[in-house]
Structures
1.
Amino acid sequence: MEANSDLKIPLLQTSPEDAAVRTVMFQIGDIKCASCINSVESSIKDLHGVNSIMVSPLDGRAIIKYSPKFITAKNIKEAIEDSGFGVDELQEQEISVCRVRIKGMACTSCSESVENALRMIDGVKKATVGLALEEAKVYFDPNLADANKIIEAIEDAGFGAELISSANDVNKVHLKLEGVDSLEDVNIVMSSLEFAAGVNHVEFNLTEHIVTVNYEPDITGPRSLIHFIQTASSGTKMYQASLHTTSGKRERDKVDEIHRYRDQFLFSCLFSVPVFVFAMVLPMLPPYGNWLNYKIHHMLTLGLFLRWILSTPVQFIVGKRFYVGSYHALRRRSANMDVLVALGTNAAYFYSVYILIKALTSDTFQGQDFFETSSMLISFILLGKYLENLAKGKTSDALGKLTQLVPDKAYLVDMDADENVISETEIDTQLIQKSDILKIVPGAKIPIDGVVIKGQSYVNESMITGEAKPVDKSPGDKVIGGTINENGCLLIKATHVGSDTALSQIVQLVETAQLAKAPVQKLADHISRVFVPLVVVAAFLTWMGWFVPGEVGLYPRHWIPKAMNAFELALQFAISVLVVACPCALGLATPTAVMVASGMGASQGVLIKGGDALEKAHKVMKLFILVTRYLFNCALAGKLSFHLQQGFKIKP
């Protein structure tokens, strides 16, 4: 294998006047399968002046880039209609989409608060928040809103936000620079990129030495951009560039979040376990617990003082996140799990502080504190959050396996005019550009969608199409990225790269399905919306239901434990109601089930478009039973008819 020194020279050169392109979006009806998409693309891509076309399998939208010098949007629309598909809508590209990762959502109330905050932004057309996926997908008018406004709105609502991708990220690349040490070097690199054909926008991060380039994929690509940067070198000053990817960042963030909850839980246990031992264990083991009854001042005992000292860090340091979450929730005029936890723990803690003050100032007062209740409650909730995040971190593993179908490396070949291979070089898959010629050896995975130009082989497409039998491929046949070349050597020409490949669209389909809400989730959301206020009312009624009868003597006095009065007994029951009532499981059950089902289905070759399809799936078994019963009755009726025709006697 020879090294190709001209590896990074652009393969597709276009004159600057051809770089001016426009984008139009059509709403195409009757898009039902991949064959429909291929029909639309085939009828459009051969038109003179059309640069690219991408049809979404989700909503039938076609985004077409064309040169107005050679063709108009009306001509394109007529071509689609001539191919047998209806064009329901014609509009210029005015809607942008961005995905944002949201941190700090605990229940359905949180996700609804984020959705409401996003919908209030001027220019936002639609916002969908996935609780289990911890993401938001926002459709907005780029003339009125942008990603920064969206992130600010989420942060103002009390949640962390981080941009995952925007509409322009499809044709955006991040390059890590070396040799750029001064402002003059930055200006040289920026100028070399800005004047390159096909480059729309350039941004430079001085801190991390990363340049972000937005480009036209039909004109240039990552490999060409690296070449432009290297050719800007002069004399002894050499500039080098390499791809900078953020792959795996989400997984690292999830691991960090799991470790953070684990550390908080262990730190909480460091204080809450001794409080529990001092309050519940040692007093039951005389004489080992007698030292806890030592009176420091008046009726303030050493055990009560130690419980107060140890529970305070748990309440205000470890439990700070519940105070912050409650503040933001109440500021939004809503209530979530943090409000319940804050109410329950504060009621237990501050009542215990009241008991401590009374014991410190009185010679005869005796009361029961609840310091162990508040500290242990926070510890158990942190344990639940740790286990919850541990489980949620595993739900996206199946989706990660889909992206691993694409190989990391590919063989780029250089051919002469007679279509003879001059050289071949191993490159990163992300450096592949449109119209590149790639060599696929037997047993290798195909990195992108393309067309066979030379060679013959059988390709295993079962992981994409479900076809168990390998498909024969010869010149002119299409190949799909992620499939496996069985026995022959193929030369393919790249036609779809990056997010335009079939595998990328499958991943987008699964992610969209995980964000979509199932119809049954609407009921859960409605219940969760009023759940916390109802719990607070129920806790107050519980306290009243035990306190008032206790004061008037409606139940026996011996029901109340020693060193406790009716108020304290009623308070225990009220706190218990606040503690056990948590809407997290109710709000997380449906989105987590949809997320796991869609991810596992995708790994098995089954694409699920959302919770609606899953909710209707149970009817398939009912339909199967009805059809089977109908066929059985038909067969039985036919058998009876046969016996009657033969004159046989039928036994009942």
2.
Amino acid sequence: MKGACFTLIAVALIESVQCAINPAEFTTDFWEDLSRLELENAKKNFNNLKTGKAKNVIMLIGDGMSLGTSTAGRIRIGQKLGQNGEEYMTSLDSMPHSGLVKTYSIDYQTPDSASTGTALLTGIKTRFRKLGVNGGGTSCPRVEANKVTTSMEFAIAAGKSAGVVTTTRVQHATPASTYAHIHRRTLYSDDKKTPGERHCDDIAMQLFKKRRDIQVILGGGRSHMRPVGVADEEFKSMGVRADGRDLIQEWQDDLANKSASYVWNKAQFDAVDPQTTDHLMGLFSPYEMQYSLNRKNDKGGEPSLAEMTEKAIKILSKNDKGFFLLVESGLLDKGHHQGRANLALEEFHELEKALNVARSLTDEEDTLIITTADHGHMFMIGAGGVRGNDVFGLASSHGNPRKAVDGKYYTTIVYGNGPGHAAKPHKKSAPRQSVQRWHTTSKYYQQQSVVPLGTETHSAEDVIVYGSGPMSHLLTGVHEQTHIARVVQYAACLGPANQNQLHCVKGSGYVIGNLIEQTLPQKAKDRRLFDESYGGTPEDDI
């Protein structure tokens, strides 16, 4: 019966879809067997901890992926596959280790993507809207003295390849947190500079200056790379740079002899051979890329997040020293801000598919994969829906949609605030609108919200982090967001502080000598942890 769905007609023209429940679930044995299997898997995970050096690091960020988003996204994917949905396991759920992360910034209880991106990539918390600087980097003159190094920059210094993949503009806060250092996250290009900012490079310029270090750049953001008056390939948009520089053309000119390709549409992207390409910049939109549900309408066509992830890994993995890759499902955040859960949850599915690709193309023995969110959203799922109720449908009780005390139906998904409230800016209040089943399935449907705001906001809640590969067990527990950067740098031996860590020394290829003897802690020397092949016990690497 698993996966077999039936349709219940509840109220005139109001439909609720539910799948048959596996009869075994009504028995004790089913749950005892399931619990036993989960326990064995948990024991296996912790009995086989990966404590070696991470050659590669892949960070996947679901921008705005609250815990509720992960739950609703899981149900949605399961229902797309013909299941009830609650029982489905996503690729995120199957990662061996997980924990919770506190997302506040120095000055805000509810953070933005710049402050959280800085915490995730540098291990240093900063102020709201600041990128790659500590809390002192509050203005252009103060940026240089307050810069903090990102994990990607440490990886580049170690000789690794680097890449950024996103569905937003590549200059947006999360992708920019890998390479940019700036006091204002919205300084995407130089057209909005104030007189006091003339000595600070805008984010697009900072990305261009790292063109030889960041081998793969995929996302949107063409307009920030081109001068005023230069027309876009697909849209009526123009370039916005005030300095007259065409950074896309300069990128192509500078890397002409470096096996480099610039692409802006799906056909060109598909034609790129990763085996013969060392540098790839794909900018598929003037600003943000299309929502996945609208991708087919794009004039030039766009690759999916999973396709971009696959291409990036295949290019970067040619480096024997390894690579660092950031992958962001950035439009998940945009969908939530619009109060359109249908769009947001489809972007969650895009992240899930990208993670599947990343895991299939890499080896868990040498690749640390971390999937998390920068922050959450005011998104909620529940409202009394029965098992298998359409995640986008009306809250139902065994096929009969429920009514609130105002006599109107309501949906399983609601927002705490946002544009889905009946009261618009020109009205102080308004009665809650009536909800019908056929409204809620539209991709543009705005779920109802409690507080009327023009844009739905971030939340202050903790977010979940999932991990696999070397040292991923260190993510277990409740941590500051900065902990993730420290785990990455420790696992991959990045930065001066980690060069003499036990797992880094073992993987260095050195022979026993005075250098190693001097770098080992006295306790390690006394316990004779090393033999001639740098053997040691796994627990000493933790």
3.
Amino acid sequence: MPSSRKMILGHVMSGLCSKMNRTKQLPADVMETPLNRCLNTFDITLLGVGHMVGAGIYVLTGTVAKEIAGPGIIISFLLAGLASLLSALCYAEFGTRLPKAGSAYVYTYISIGEFWAFVIGWNILLEHMIGAASVARAWSGYVDFLFGGVISNATLSITGEMHEELLGKYPDLLAFVVCIVYALLLGIGVKGSAIVNSFLTVINLSVMVLVVVVGFYYANEENWTTPKGGFLPYGFSGVLAGAATCFYAFVGFDSIATSGEEAKNPSFSIPMATVLSMGIVTLGYILVCAALTLLVPYYNISDSAALPEAFSGVGMHWVKYAISIGAICGMTTTLFGSLFSLPRCMYAMASDGLLFSFLGDVNSKTQVPLTNLVISGVFSATIALLFDLEKLVEFMSIGTLLAYTIVSASVIILRYRPTLSPSRSILTLGSEMSVSTSEPTTPSEIVNMAGTLRVKYSWLTPVLGNCEPGSAVSTSVFIYTVFSGALCILIQVSSRDLSNGIWWTIILAVSFIFIMGACMLVIVAHHQNNEGLRFKVPMVPFLPALSILCNLEFMIHLNILTWLRFFVWMVLGMLVYFLYGIHNSKEGETMSTYSMLMNSSEAVKEKWGATTRTNIKGVLTRRKSSTAGERNAIIGDEDDDVP
């Protein structure tokens, strides 16, 4: 018996590191899916807008304007929108590379490895589950406010108060019912639910336009020059603190990338919908906040119902009811967005074997993962029933920011990884190879230069010359991320010492910045792989690196209890991964039979960063069989021209 246990333990621990770092192999046809590809650019844009414009504009704006930033909330939303756009562009590039459900989880699996992919996927599940629960709780609270607190008072009289710190004041039965009902509505099919979402989002945007027009008509510019602090009553630090809070109003943009597996034309729709939705939402938030703070002094803004009370104060009571309709529609679309994304992420992880296999089933009639949708609705409804809204929002943010950070890092890593790229003149059936003397003619020449040192940086050869292509960049990204986090912690903990010129804090800060700069130099010194990308994040590696820094800065501002809850959630995730996922991974099956499966038609399915020793016949066969248009949206395998 002891020997059996030893054998089992040896089997479990063997190759643990390689298992955790194995990357996802691309399917032969990334456009093939059991889901229904029926969403156009308009549908996906309104899905993103609807997910972002909900509880934030009707609940968050009043609190931030009154207690954190004052009228400077306009700048807060602008900064938060720009920071979110950096991550959104990274998502958009991945969405065109790989139009699959799972969003950041799939991108991480392809670029970094299985373990970090599971960490991201596990946190995305939490993000959308808590996102749905928090919006349902806000939806219930808003309806309760409109009815004068009748619902909460009746519930308290029946159930009494819950006195635990993490739990809500009372069990929110209305929020529970709302989650269940909306989950059932999403079960009708993606196109039907997209139509409902688009209709509600258009109503919400119309209400926002009404708020802006009427608000500016009754605007009083003296509210921005009040003796109680003027435009920036809390200073620029208040603006930054407001930006950290307002950032979470934009977290819904990842639902755009999640819809990639149901988009008709993902290589166009995903980046276009990302840019349009971010632009619409940022402009909408800025204009609504400007109208609100011009309509009423920031210190008189209502915490619970900022917009309705502001218009009631100037005698425009009818606008109050229009705003209420918009708020209900906006919160509904945000709830739709979370309940839309959650089951699809579960489906993606289960399809890869990292979650239980029954979660990978898709209903043949509706082409929706109905089992996941039921589970998502029940769990989200239970969380909404019991937990406090403020604690839910704090807990949601940490997983979101972690996902954004790793996706931004993944963009840099993949841009500098070498992939096989046949020459522009491709051999087709019945034709002869036609290659000029300037075109590559041998397998070693077919490999592009990505991940190798550029000529003008050849002076780095003694240090980096022996590194595998792409490995130096991957290491530099890791070091940059670590020291970015260290810099953010130093600024947070020792901000007073830095401002007072304490020597050791200045030396540390300068050292961290120098190391980060050196990492960026190493990255820039290498050739990029831009082959065939239909949408590219501009200014790589600088914009993704800035995104990493912004996301880490926001994470450092989270309180210690949020980090402790995150640790507990990750312990549960590690149990799932090491007891189930690592042993049932589909990539594990691929690795164990790799030598048998490595025939000429599959030779191109190398792990990322593979070198020149790939069967050229397999590459050309793969190219010959690939179709035009969307079916070429495979990472690093696109051709510029097909004669």
